[in-house]
Amino acid sequence: MAIEVVLLDNIEKLGKVGDTVKVANGYARNFLFPRDLAVHASQAVLKQIEARRAKVAEVHAAEVAVAQELAAKINETSITIPMQAGEDDKLFGSVTVTEIHDLLAKDGIEVDRRKIAVGEAIKTLGVHEVSVKVHAEVSATLKVWVVKA
Question: Which residues belong to any copy of the Ribosomal protein L9 domain (predicted)?
Answer without folding.
Answer: 15-42
